[in-house]
Amino acid sequence: MLLAAKAWPFQEARTILDRLGGPDAAQTPEKGYVLFETGYGPSGLPHIGTFGEVARTTMVRHAFQQMSDIPTRLVAFSDDMDGLRKVPTNLPEQEMLNSHLGKPLTAVPDPFGTHDSFAAHNNARLQAFLDTFGFEYEFYSSTECYRAGMFDDTLRAMLSHYDAIMGVILPTLGAERQATYSPFLPVCPRTGVVLQVPMEATDPEAGTVTYKDPETDVAVETPVTGGHCKLQWKADWAMRWVALSVDYEMSGKDLIDSVNLSGKICRILGARPPAGLTYELFLDENGEKISKSRGNGLTIEEWLTYGPPESLSHYMFGKPKSAKRLHFDVIPKSVDEYLTNVARYPAQEPDKQLESSAWHIHTGDVPPAGADLSFGLLLNLAGACNSEDPAVLWGFIERYAEGATPENSPFIDRLVGHAIAYYRDFVKPSKQYRAPDDKERAALSDLADRFAAMPADADGEALQNEVYAVGKDHEFEPLRDWFRALYEVLFGQSQGPRFGSFAALYGRDATVDLLRRALAGEDLSAA
């Protein structure tokens, strides 16, 4: 069944099995495990795209683990020896950072004043976030790997194949860049800057390169090993694949050419490039690519203010080969889709469970669904109560979901907090209540009367049926105009979750009172 699973993580896992000899004959690599890698450039604050690579790679890794007994490892690699080329506009201490342009990110002071370097600050933020998700990974620092000699053998191999590597890279560059390009970037012993200078000479036997100091014009010979040089990032990527023997790494659509070029360098060194998925880019609310330097799109912390971690994992699971908008308005939808998948999971056939985001988020151990509460319902409950106090919302929830409390239902309690934050920052400021027209007034009055005649403990389905009946009896065509009227009059917005479900949560009597207050022309936005 696993070999036939349709979900994309299983499809990716099968490509790794094929790489190792096929499902029935897969051989453990000589190093003793399959290595998954994700890369991170700490020149700006970590964003959700960075998390997405780790989350998605973890899903592939887990799928592979279900299909094979071969051990696996996941490395989160930070290219923190890269020189600071420009200062992201969303950082403090702009003047100070500009004075350190060109230096390795691990040699640039932390503008936030909390860590030894700018790279250390960003690396710590990334790791702290990945740790909250319980990812099993090993963090590698480029600076530490270079200085510890982990890459020395591969760097010497690259120096031995210098001309062949140049032959791959130079045709991809413009004439001006060709004149100065070298895959090796010496770290200037005088200034500490990562230099982009042409090589005067290379000596594979000695393991050195010679360049001219751009300020003094003095020839300098330096080892390519031990952290005295780093590589241009495309060459660096290939070197890392070879040195670590990486089996799988995914990357964005904008790096397709780089993947191909790095793959050619990898083969020059006698190695095989890793398998990997090319995913589409994340876009901001304007349809533009999110960027660390511009700071557009969502930050990791922002998503977690308004939605639980599981909702972010769900967002990352869906259609990785399709471009995805990454803005605040995608959060409620992602939360509710995740909740729906968890609720449906127990009744699904095993093959369908393997296609569910819930299986991949929870590595097959999907928690019980809990109370039937959606994010949209909680948003409307906050609006109807005109309260940002969790205790007020819990007063309704405890009546709706008998036995549920903040103490024994921590996920629901977190969901309440997220919903209140989202309501406060995005829903409440944009509410626009309106008075009903004559047709809507008659229907609202009818609905209030019908609700009042129903049992006090009527469930959401029964209440929803009555909402449908009123809309049809009052000849709303299309029927969605009736639901739009309900939400615009009662909540100051044009859409929301099933009204019957809201009424069951809010309570029959409270809903009747809300309808009659609207009919009386009261200000429903007032507490």
What does this structure look like?
- With 527 residues, this protein is mostly helical.
- Among the domains are: 49 residues, no CATH class; 82 residues, Arc Repressor Mutant, subunit A.
- The chain is built from 23 helices and twelve strands.
- The strands form five sheets. The chain has a three-stranded parallel sheet with strand order 1-2-3.
- Strand 5 and strand 6 form a beta hairpin.
Brief descriptors of the model:
527 residues; mainly alpha; three-stranded parallel beta sheet; three-stranded antiparallel beta sheet; 23 helices; elongated
Sheet with the most strands, sense and barrel status: 3 strands, parallel
Oligomer: single chain
Mean model confidence by pLDDT: 93
Query: What name does CATH use for the topology of the domain at 438-519?
Result: Arc Repressor Mutant, subunit A
Q: Flag low-confidence runs.
A: none
The level-1 CATH class of the domain at 438-519 = Mainly Alpha
Q: Work out the number of β strands.
A: 12
* Share of helical residues: 40-55%
**In one word, what is the shape?**
elongated
C-alpha end-to-end distance: 55 Å
Strand content: 5-15%
